[in-house]
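Ticket 4471: requesting a sanity check on a complex prediction with 4'-deoxy-4'-aminopyridoxal-5'-phosphate. Repro inputs:
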Amino acid sequence: MSVAPFPASRLGPTRLPSVGTTAFTVMSQLAQQHGAINLGQGFPDFNCDPHLQALLTEAMDAGHNQYAPMPGVPALRQAIRAKNARLYGHCYDADAEVTITAGATQAIMAAVLALVAPGDEVIVLEPVYDSYGPSIELAGGRIVRVPLEAARDYAPDWERVRAAITPRTRLIMLNFPHNPTGRCLAAADLRALEDIVAATGVLLLSDEVYEHIVFDGQPHRSLAGSPLLAAHTVLISSFGKTFHTTGWKVGTLCAPRALTAEIRKVHQFMVFAVNTPAQHAFATYLRDPLPYETLPAFYQAKRDLFVAGLRDTPFRVLPCPGTYFVLADYSAVSALPEAQFAQRMIVDWGVAVIPVSVFYDQPVDHRVVRFCFAKRDDTLRAALERLARVTT
Ligand code: PMP
Ligand code: GLN
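Returned structure tokens:
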């Protein structure tokens, strides 16, 4: 007896991109196929601190190999409480307001599923990180996109954000330092946001995974640094970016207790608990602030090395005040649209990048690509040698 295949139209979230089709995955695969230097997907090509690795082994040797408590290992929640209090002046309750997550992606999904009901509107700033849209779609929310304009160096236009708020607006999702533009918040941005929150009471999700990757002496301005904003914000970060451990998939979510209680209802059935030995390792590692305090200088040196080299090519480098990404305009090199140009870069010059168009909903062609400079200096130099062959 032949069985008819189950109709694909009835198989769940068909509005989400198919598996393996996100630009980061596709570009990494292409890079591998063509032996290109991968400056596309955002991850370091160097190892984490051997001391952190030793702490992970120690945690396993000490028998920390079974389920962690659902909200996270208490010592790690305490360490995050202390770090946020010291850096941003906001004291989250380690028991009721700090949750350890399986990376920022899971934190974002859990928060959106918990807080957004079908029909709710969620404002995002476009270009927007690829997981936000699918999280909102799964919650049944409606995505409202407010552009960050290249002509304003991608500074948020708070008037436009405010104009986009309706009685149905549930959440504004923010990400500064911003992937892919590197844009960081100024003090005036926080004041503008405070005005919006005071007037509307809207909730905020602040994805601050690049909180420790800011350059040229500027501070990272966390939304937790404002009591008013902190009271309305789900604050998300990730150890992957800060400690060169993207593969460990451990992140943090801090939010006022009422919001945390709702988000944990989702979290407990999404992952129940997060990798135990890694949590112990991070808890101990965080006793020393030096690794994250020295991160800005570490990445600034890489930015400077890479940007100086790129300036000798026909690419026009855009400002890069934070994150480990830098955007470059290639309009002097090619008239190809971004996705095709990115393919050509792999095939002709052996360097993989991310077309910035993938951060937009509608087709756009600004002729801008994103380079990731979280790479060993010799990798960056090798990529620059290849890019030196690019001509107008
Ligand atoms: N948000 C942004 C803006 C990111 O760039 C990334 C990953 N690079 C994430 C979230 C996901 O972080 P994680 O790997 O901890 O899930
Ligand atoms: N966040 C990384 C980037 O922007 C990629 C992570 C992923 O592939 N999901 O490149």
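Notes from triage: The chain has a mean pLDDT of 96. Leaving this open until the requester confirms.
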